[in-house]
Sequence to fold (79 residues):
Amino acid sequence: GGEETGIALVRPTTVVGFLAETLRDNGFRVSVSVDPLSDELPAPTLRTLTRVMQECVTNILRYGRRDGACTLTLDVGTH
Fold:
């Protein structure tokens, strides 16, 4: 692969704000913890992480109780 130029990437620290707002708008109590280092991960990893986060929230909306609590956590390990 070559350089990825001109491709807009959405950072996990940005996405989590929108996802948390969506959950709150739907009656969930939300706690958020996203490691700022996640924004510095390689582009393919960023795309995967943001997509996984979106899918998790979709599942919460589909299957969770509207007055329930949920936690969105993303921690970048050392490896």
